[in-house]
């Protein structure tokens, strides 16, 4: 079976290898976030903000917040923003951003295992931005999110589009081309070390994540009592096309991101 480079199927859970990898690669991720030519900024973040709608006065929890750019933005829009992440270096960056933006965030260190410590109905929105691939038990996590939400509440999710985790870049005479490889339904835990998962000496930082299909996420949400209200596969904005036409063309060919909004039934 053909897999992207530096990627292999492996045994066992993704956690805690995944959070250890994020701790080691925290500096690389912050550098990625600071870049202008950054597909999250060009494609995912604007689409997610549209999905969130008017958040004034809402109580929000961002799970796997990392540097908490969503929570800073939510607080700027008038939300009461809470954040949770296992990596202290990323939370430090979140605290600096909040200070620069002049907003208050309620941050704590920890992963999805901390969700049971929050109260029933404590939040109006629970966000999972670019994090669920690292979470082993999405069914249990969604059940907890359902409990934490107020009756009108919803979850907002962004993911690497499941089709994208089956793609490789391929050199051709015309330049790089994106090709879909292996089977879409080949689920499992993969170990990978590329992109930001490389240390200063060029050695891979092994990270583990789950390969799941869209059906897996929908089933887990519905099983936890949610109703899917929106599913988005965003195209780049005109500004995005102007800044980074190559990545936007790839996203056009095979979407980079999948966004889901699910409401409490
Ligand atoms: C791709 S980053 C996304 C960070 C942030 N949400 C963003 O959009 O910039 C993945 C994040 O998931 C966090 N993470 C990894 N495993 C986790 C777990 N089991 N529970 C909660 N967060 C986790 C990492 O520490 C990291 O901050």
Report what the structure shows.
It is a single chain. This protein has 265 residues and is α/β, with parallel strands linked by helices. The protein is 34% helix and 28% strand. The chain has a seven-stranded mixed β-sheet with strand order 4-3-2-5-6-12-11, with helices on both faces. Strands 1-9-10 form a three-stranded antiparallel β-sheet. Strands 7-8 form a two-stranded antiparallel ribbon. Strand 5, helix 6 and strand 6 form a beta-alpha-beta unit. The model has no long low-confidence stretch (mean pLDDT 93). S-adenosylmethionine binds next to helix 1. S-adenosylmethionine is lined by residues 15, 18-19, 22, 63-67, 69, 85-87, 90, 111-112, 129-131, 134-135.
**What is the CA-atom radius of gyration, in angstroms?**
18 Å
CATH domain fold name = Rossmann fold
The share of residues in helices is 25-40%
Give the biggest beta sheet.
Answer: 7 strands, mixed
Q: Element order, helices and strands?
A: EHHHEHEHEEHEEEEEHEHHE
Distinct small molecules bound, one entry per kind: S-adenosylmethionine
Low-confidence stretches: none
* Subunit organisation of the chains: single chain
Average pLDDT reading: 93
- Write out the strand line-up for the largest beta sheet, numbering strands in chain order: 4-3-2-5-6-12-11
Q: State the CATH architecture.
A: 3-Layer(aba) Sandwich
Shape: globular
Q: Helical region count?
A: 9
Total number of domains: 1
Q: CATH superfamily assignment?
A: Vaccinia Virus protein VP39
Number of strands: 12
Distance between the termini: 41 Å
Structural class: alpha/beta
Q: In what range is the share of β-strand residues?
A: 25-35%
CATH class: Alpha Beta
């Amino acid at each position: 079976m053909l897999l992207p480079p530096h990627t292999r199927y492996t045994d066992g859970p993704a956690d805690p290898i995944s959070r250890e990898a994020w701790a080691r690669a925290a500096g690389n991720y912050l550098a990625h976030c600071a870049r202008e030519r950054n597909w999250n900024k060009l494609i995912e973040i604007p689409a997610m903000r549209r999905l969130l709608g008017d958040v004034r006065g809402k109580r929000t929890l961002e799970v796997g917040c990392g540097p908490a750019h969503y929570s800073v933005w939510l607080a700027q829009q008038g939300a009461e923003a809470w954040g949770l992440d296992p990596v202290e270096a990323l939370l430090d960056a979140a605290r600096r951003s909040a200070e620069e933006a002049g907003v208050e965030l309620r941050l704590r260190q920890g992963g999805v295992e901390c969700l049971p410590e929050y109260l029933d109905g404590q939040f109006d929105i629970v966000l999972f931005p670019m994090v669920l691939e690292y979470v082993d038990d999405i069914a249990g996590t969604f059940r907890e999110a359902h409990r934490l939400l107020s009756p009108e509440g919803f979850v907002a999710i962004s993911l690497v589009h499941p089709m994208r985790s089956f793609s490789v870049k391929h050199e051709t005479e015309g330049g790089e081309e994106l090709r879909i490889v292996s089977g879409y339904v080949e689920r499992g835990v993969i170990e990978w070390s590329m992109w930001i998962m490389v240390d200063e000496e060029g050695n891979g930082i092994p990270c583990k994540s789950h390969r799941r299909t869209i059906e897996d996420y929908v089933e887990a949400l519905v099983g936890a009592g949610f109703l899917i209200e929106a599913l988005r596969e965003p195209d780049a904005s005109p500004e995005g096309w102007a800044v980074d036409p190559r990545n936007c063309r790839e996203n056009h060919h095979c979407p980079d991101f999948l966004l889901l909004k699910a409401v409490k039934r």
